[in-house]
């Protein structure tokens, strides 16, 4: 079962397996944009595991101050000042080799998920990658018990939230020239999904 919103202990637990998987897929990345960086747990760890990357963290305007405060003691060149990013509005120009988000798709409404994909497609370099970690559903397959309970709890809190079907995300990516290239099983019934932008786009 995925962590509940705002659970920093879960971010601490999951950072190592996430980056164990990401290291291979971002071996040649130089510029990465993180969407929904929260308290910067993953951003801080990213510069240890991917020292060749400039890791640009970002957060929705309503949570931006928390992220800035979390990184106030850091001044590394590869961990620049966070950005305020509303995925439905203007994105930074980029270009980026990768866009990463952990536990973001299920707390956004579907319009925001669409904006996440379209925004990522715009700012990614050719052959760049969109990497999303979290709990997901698979069409026609019953969810794991923990994920089913988590999905129900999210929808009780806000009917616009909820776990997303992998196939629905693939459908968002297709017209944007984003094709899924990896589906990696992670602890606690989570997954790391990676879409790659066409090399000629």
TrEMBL record:
Signal peptide range in chain numbering: none
- One of its Pfam families is DUF938
Q: Which domain of life is it from?
A: Bacteria
Quick check: keyword Transferase in the entry?
yes
Gene Ontology BP terms: methylation
Q: Does the keyword Magnesium apply?
A: no
Going by the UniProt record, its keywords in alphabetical order are: Methyltransferase, Transferase
SUPFAM superfamilies, alphabetically?
A: S-adenosyl-L-methionine-dependent methyltransferases
A single GO molecular function term of this UniProt record: methyltransferase activity
Against PANTHER family, the record matches this protein to: UPF0585 PROTEIN CG18661
The name of this protein is SAM-dependent methyltransferase protein
